[in-house]
Design brief:
The complex is a heterodimer. By secondary structure, chain A is of the alpha/beta class. Chain A has helices at residues 45-51, 75-81, 89-92, 98-108, 113-126, 142-154, 172-184, 196-202, 220-223, 227-232, 239-242, and strands spanning 6-14, 20-29, 34-38, 60-65, 68-69, 82-85, 160-164, 188-192, 205-210, 213-219. In chain B, 72% of the residues lie in helices and 3% in strands. Classes of the chains: A alpha/beta, B mainly alpha. The structure holds adenosine-5'-triphosphate and magnesium ion.
Chain lengths: 244, 269
């Protein structure tokens, strides 16, 4: 548990159609840090997260997770450490019932049935969705899907948690629950979101991405209160700060 | 909008299968096997048999009531596919001119008899198959198949089909709505638009498939679907299977209708 470091060094990425989504992107996140990734639509947040466990391989530069250097060979190891919650929960809930879906990860880790059940229960309790355990995903609302998708990743007990718009579909109470849940997660976490209040609440550090590269990197206190910087990046002050 | 209502119809059948009744709780394997036995027994009757088939109506009736399935819904579905059976059987009365004696002194034209037999068998088999689906959710049927020894890869395909048919359905619905909303009264159903929509849908599906695969890898997928052992055969399963088999056997081997008829004739004379 010594170093859950995430390090991007001069990462470049070009989609097959030629779009350059990341360009010389560098940052370093140390163990236990919580970092918010913000930026305009299309700035490259989702692309960045997909690099965190090797779904996309950088076309230039390097990615290091812990003491592992990301290559096609180390991908599998890295995937056990990094849990990613995707932007669209439908992509993530692929099993026919909530139970099966949350159990999928632990079962693949080779746990026996009893431990799997315990993990599933614990993970669903975390997001307050234990009642949905026998439902098929297509009978859930979008917010419930998001919550279950989070549970499915938490059931893997990852060392590093990466989330793409985790609160997009959640109602205020579930959003609050999620924020509290994220605060209790001690390992490193990286959250890409347009919900600046959530970022302000959960993350001590904040990185702004513009056109695939780091435009600003510093304490949330400084960045999220800097109106000019935010507006340059299609963002605005968190609501909680606007009232003052 | 035809697509919407068809889609919600499938959804309704699916929703029924998640109720919690005695029939729903039975082990999926028991239900699958007894239903198959039922189908084979019904089909095994000779082509002129009508009276002996009536007792079999008991099975769908029991499934309907115990499983709390609205009969109207199942009837409507059966009627929907019935032209098929009528088409198969309709020429029998024209082609088959023989006479069959069913009771001493009562003969009926063989053609009509076999037509009635086809319709009845059709009704029994289709309604029973529908009831199986309405009382056993698709994933549990898949688990049953897996536990009965079907290859894992085949069962996972079925499970994915089930999971994403609804996602795809919703995607189609969104596209169709978006089209209707912007075609301002024109039908917008020209072939050109349709081809475009199909193309968009295809691309979205491919991209989605890729993202799903990512999500599976993220959770340790290495080519083998895990099997969960949630279901166990209980005594009520065995009791259920046993009573179904006994009933099927009796209905198959003894002319139950005739016996009951004789019994009542005995009382009233
Ligand atoms: N599959 C793809 N093929 C080609 N280009 C893509 C693909 N996915 C994204 N892009 C492009 O890459 C860039 C970064 O996209 P990305 O999805 O990372 O943005 P984002 O910051 O997550 O935006 P949002 O806030 O809208 O989620 C965009 O210019 C986008 O058009
Ligand atoms: Mg995104």
């Amino acid at each position: 548990m010594s170093h859950h470091i995430v390090e991007f060094k001069d990462v470049c990425f070009r989609y097959p159609d030629g779009t350059e989504a990341l360009h010389n992107l560098s940052f370093r996140i140390i163990h236990g840090e919580s970092v918010g990734i913000i930026g305009a639509n299309g700035s490259g947040k989702s692309t960045l997260l997909l690099h965190m466990n090797g779904y996309l391989m950088p076309t230039g530069g390097t990615v290091n997770i812990g003491d592992l250097h990301l290559t096609r060979k180390t991908r599998r190891e890295i995937r056990k450490k990094v849990g990613i919650v995707f932007q669209n929960p439908d992509d993530q809930l692929f099993m026919p019932t909530v139970y099966d879906d949350v159990a999928f990860g632990p079962q693949n880790l080779g746990m026996d049935e009893e431990d799997v059940q315990k993990r599933v229960r614990a993970a669903l309790d975390l997001v307050n969705c234990y009642d949905l355990i026998n439902k098929p995903p297509h009978h859930l609302s979008n917010g419930q899907k998001s919550a279950v998708a989070i549970a499915a990743v938490m059931a893997m007990e990852p060392d590093i948690l990466a989330m793409d718009e985790p609160a997009a579909n959640l109602d205020p109470k579930s959003r609050r629950l999620l924020i509290n849940l994220l605060k209790t997660f001690e390992h490193s976490k990286i959250i890409a979101s347009h919900d600046l209040d959530l970022i302000f609440d959960v993350c001590k550090r904040c990185i702004i991405i513009r056109e695939g590269t780091v435009a600003a990197d510093g304490p949330s206190q400084d960045i999220l209160t800097n109106k000019i910087l935010l507006e340059e990046n299609n963002l605005e002050l968190p609501l909680s700060l606007q009232r003052r | 909008m035809a697509f919407d209502s068809q889609y919600y119809n499938v959804g309704y059948l699916d929703r029924l299968s998640y109720q919690d009744t005695f029939v729903h709780r039975l082990d999926p394997r028991t239900k699958l096997i007894t239903t198959l036995l039922f189908l084979f027994t019904v089909i095994s009757f000779s082509k002129y048999e009508v009276a002996a088939l009536f007792p079999f109506l008991l099975f769908p009736a029991i499934f309907l009531t115990v499983g709390e399935i609205p009969p109207g819904f199942i009837l409507k579905k059966v009627l929907l596919v019935s032209p098929f059976a009528i088409f198969i059987g309709i020429f029998n009365p024209l082609l088959d001119h023989g006479q069959v004696a069913i009771l001493p002194g009562l003969t009926l034209p063989a053609g009509w008899l076999s037509f009635a037999s086809i319709l009845l068998k059709f009704f029994l088999t289709v309604s029973m198959a529908l009831l199986l689906i309405a009382t056993t959710s698709f994933p549990t049927i898949c688990h049953a198949l897996r536990r009965l020894g079907l290859p894992s890869i085949f069962v996972s395909q079925l499970l994915f089909l089930y999971r994403y048919i609804f996602v795809l359905g919703e995607e189609v619905m969104r596209i169709v709505r978006a089209r209707d909303m912007r075609s301002y009264g024109r039908k917008g159903t020209e072939i050109k638009v349709f081809v475009r929509i199909a193309g968009v849908l295809f691309l979205r599906t491919v991209e989605r498939a890729e993202r799903i695969y990512f999500a599976m890898l993220a959770r340790g997928y290495e080519g083998d679907m895990p099997v969960s052992k949630k279901y166990h055969l209980t005594t009520s399963d065995l009791a259920f299977a046993l009573s179904v088999i006994v009933c099927l056997f009796i209905f198959r081997c003894y002319p139950v209708t005739q016996i009951i008829g004789n019994f009542f004739r005995g009382i009233f004379s």
